[in-house]
Amino acid sequence: MKTLIKNAKVVTPAGIQETSVLIEGTRIADLDAATQTTADQVVDAGGKYLLPGVIDDQVHFREPGLTHKEDLAHASRACAKGGVTSFLEMPNTVPNTITQAALEAKLATASKSSLVNYGFYVGATTENVDVLQHATRTPGIKIFIGSSTGNLLVDEQAALEKIFAQSTLTICAHCEDETTVRANAAKYANETDIAFHSKVRDHEAAVIATKRAIDLAQRHNHRFHVLHVSTADEIELIQNGGPLITSEVCPHHLFFNVDDYPRLGSLVKMNPSVKTKTDNEQLWQALCDGIIDIVATDHAPHTMEEKREPYPKCPSGLPAVENYLALMLNQVNQGKCTIEQVAKWMCSGPAEIWNMKRKGRIEVGYDADLTLVDMDLTQTVLNENQETKCGWTPWHGDDVTGWPIATWVMGKQVFRISDGKSEFDDSRLGAEIEYTTG
Ligand code: DOR
Question: What is the C-alpha to C-alpha distance for residues 393 and 301, in angstroms, rounded to an integer?
Fold first, then answer.
């Protein structure tokens, strides 16, 4: 099966080219194909931008065990709609993904239900270093150095030293210092205002844990990725971390801060917590300066009923996969960054960090994971239009300009907007992501 996407502004590693992309089977077969090239299907992109499919390296899709919040079928539709063609999912499901068998069970489930390409991290515990050493079919190891949703936590120094010393896969971590968070939680135990969440999970908690993890990585010469950087104070640590250290920021830490609690309440309760407007601005600058490498969502759905529980009981996390490319394209439209930067932060960057084979670029021989975006399309984000199973978004009511309008996964079109309506092809499934390591 051959598909020719013609008349597109193709975002390639060499810059933007007004040209065509020929897909043959699951791969990109040609760029700038000769005008007489024939194909089974010809798509006229109408001069719109064609990006590599987005790769979200931090999502919580809740399957198995928490499927009342989300599942792979809903979440992967949300991905397709949002231009996300590959995801890497976190181990805090039920059961936790802390054995090779649990990892392979997830891969098997995804092979039957995910519309987009999938990969799963293996979670660290104080006792499973042998699993971490021998894990295969995974991008890397996730450590909760501070606890969050679920019961995964590795806080003891000896256990952390052992994991960094004895494993070889890239490690990523949730960096909030458990001791600091617990002390703050005790101090503010009687507070019921949601804003205290940012005082419990404060700047110091993030800085202490990020510093500790970077120190471990450097002493053990281990590749390490800082998940969801939330404070300006961590930027210098990352900048001075050297080549072993990469990092990411999430849309909620770029676009929300403590001033949003009165309006959005627990909808913006997440771990790490939102910080200040100054943190937003400096994180954005660090991203533009190339200090922070990539943007990921930390898509972490909970039901609205759960979110309505009073603070502190309401759970932490928010959904974002279907809106984050659009939120970033909206920034391009506002002149805050370029579309090439977005492709680096959300496509080639994550593919390189996680050693993915043939992903993240529009280049001959790469997988045909693509998203066509309309930079002039304005849509209002609405709860009722969300594909995520939890059915809400903290961006409800926001007008956003720049949206994915068609998505291809491994050469097959899985999503398009037709006459203003979302259309999916649920019969088409994604593939397991391959890595040069693991
Ligand atoms: O807010 C969060 N929610 N942060 C995490 O690290 C976990 C996530 C979840 O799984 O709910």
Answer: 9
| pLDDT digits 0-9 by tens, 332-348 | 999 999 999 999 999 99
Q: Which residues are catalytic?
A: 298
- Out of 2.30.40.10, 1.10.3720.10, 2.40.128.130, 3.90.980.10, the CATH code matching 2-50+364-376+399-424 is 2.30.40.10
In three-state secondary structure terms, 231 is coil
> Which element (helix H / strand E) includes 198?
helix 197-200
Whether ligand 1 lies within 6 angstroms of the CB of 393 is answered as no
Ligand 1 site, residue 230, Cβ cutoff 6 A = no
Q: What is the residue extent of each domain of the chain?
A: 2-50+364-376+399-424, 53-353
Q: How far does residue 278's CA lie from ligand 1's centre (Å)?
A: 23
pLDDT of residue 427: 86
3-state class percentages of the chain: helix first, strand second, coil last, to nearest 5? 30, 25, 45
Evaluate if pTM is beyond 0.85.
yes
Structure-token pair, residue 285: 């600058």
CATH topology of domain 53-353: TIM Barrel (3.20.20)
Q: Is 60 in the pocket of ligand 1 (CB under 6 A)?
A: yes
What tens digit of pLDDT does each residue of 139-166 get?
Answer: 999 999 999 999 999 999 999 999 999 9
Q: What is the reported pLDDT for 438?
A: 57
Cα 159 versus chain centre, distance: 27
